[in-house]
Amino acid sequence: MDGRESMERKMAEYSAMSREALDRELEREAAALKAKGMLDIPRLEEFLRTASPYMSAEQVARMRELIDALRRL
């Protein structure tokens, strides 16, 4: 599977998630990256830009809130 297929699969997975599931996924990913010293806010921003067409306006707004909260860590 190439990078594009992988990204498309992830976008489909995330677009089907509830708000709570998206929150948990982002928190899990952030905790893992922070533990490795690799919390990359610009990469999260890029993910949001890429995935937002497949997400509801509410999901995009919530992801924005979470990314902003992570930025303040």
What does this entry show, briefly?
This protein has 73 residues and is mostly helical.
Which SSEs are present, and which pair or pack?
Blueprint: H1 3-15, H2 19-35, H3 41-51, H4 57-71
Helix pairs in contact: 2-4, 3-4
Question: Can you describe what's shown?
Answer:
It is a single chain. Helices cover 77% and strands 0% of the residues. With 73 residues, the chain is mainly α. It has one domain.
Entry keywords:
73 residues, mainly alpha
Number of domains: 1
Quote the average pLDDT.
85
Structural class label? mainly alpha
Percent of sequence in beta strands: under 5%
Distance between the termini: 34 Å
How would you classify the quaternary structure?
single chain
Total strands: the figure is 0
Identify the overall geometry. globular
Biggest sheet layout: none
Order of helices and strands: HHHH
